[in-house]
């Protein structure tokens, strides 16, 4: 049997994803050990976990360097890569939202200045509502932008809303729901279809039991 290669990010998202796959017989002892190795193998279960940054998971899957990947819907939407999205893993739930200062009034007679780590998502959303924007790409602390006049609004991931509230910002519009997803390389989906479909069927059962 060929190895099943899975890209996964270390951290909460990756750890929860691994626990789900472990329940389906894809256990890997090396994954559970303290190590700096980036490729973790289980000879017994014929699976390799490849540790990458979450934002890089889509390109590893698209290029066929791995068969499967676990990644947030936010990254999928921003990266716009070519692969199959085969399962909603039902954890890591949050949402994209537009937020700004409490007293901000949106003026659509001129482009809205939007600060975000997700420029593609922001452009798609505002285009769908017929509003023009000027996007500023930031890499962190997006909440700061409207506070010091860098932008009118922000587009960001919101889980509890605590960070927005602590910085005097409010949600103006909910955009898209987000959760962790299992994605598959298109060629791998054909060549390893039996094994991948078995995982999909197993996930439906495991996730259903956890809801």
Automatic annotation (TrEMBL):
<keyword id="KW-0547">Nucleotide-binding</keyword>
<dbReference type="InterPro" id="IPR001348">
    <property type="entry name" value="ATP_PRibTrfase_HisG"/>
</dbReference>
<comment type="similarity">
    <text>Belongs to the ATP phosphoribosyltransferase family. Short subfamily.</text>
</comment>
<keyword id="KW-0808">Transferase</keyword>
<dbReference type="GO" id="GO:0005524">
    <property type="term" value="F:ATP binding"/>
</dbReference>
<dbReference type="InterPro" id="IPR013820">
    <property type="entry name" value="ATP_PRibTrfase_cat"/>
</dbReference>
<dbReference type="GO" id="GO:0000105">
    <property type="term" value="P:L-histidine biosynthetic process"/>
</dbReference>
<comment type="subunit">
    <text>Heteromultimer composed of HisG and HisZ subunits.</text>
</comment>
<dbReference type="InterPro" id="IPR024893">
    <property type="entry name" value="ATP_PRibTrfase_HisG_short"/>
</dbReference>
<keyword id="KW-0328">Glycosyltransferase</keyword>
<protein>
    <recommendedName>
        <fullName>ATP phosphoribosyltransferase</fullName>
        <ecNumber>2.4.2.17</ecNumber>
    </recommendedName>
</protein>
<feature type="domain" description="ATP phosphoribosyltransferase catalytic">
    <location>
        <begin position="53"/>
        <end position="204"/>
    </location>
</feature>
<dbReference type="GO" id="GO:0005737">
    <property type="term" value="C:cytoplasm"/>
</dbReference>
<keyword id="KW-0067">ATP-binding</keyword>
<dbReference type="Pfam" id="PF01634">
    <property type="entry name" value="HisG"/>
</dbReference>
<comment type="function">
    <text>Catalyzes the condensation of ATP and 5-phosphoribose 1-diphosphate to form N'-(5'-phosphoribosyl)-ATP (PR-ATP). Has a crucial role in the pathway because the rate of histidine biosynthesis seems to be controlled primarily by regulation of HisG enzymatic activity.</text>
</comment>
<comment type="pathway">
    <text>Amino-acid biosynthesis; L-histidine biosynthesis; L-histidine from 5-phospho-alpha-D-ribose 1-diphosphate: step 1/9.</text>
</comment>
<keyword id="KW-0963">Cytoplasm</keyword>
<dbReference type="InterPro" id="IPR018198">
    <property type="entry name" value="ATP_PRibTrfase_CS"/>
</dbReference>
<dbReference type="GO" id="GO:0003879">
    <property type="term" value="F:ATP phosphoribosyltransferase activity"/>
</dbReference>
<keyword id="KW-0028">Amino-acid biosynthesis</keyword>
<keyword id="KW-0368">Histidine biosynthesis</keyword>
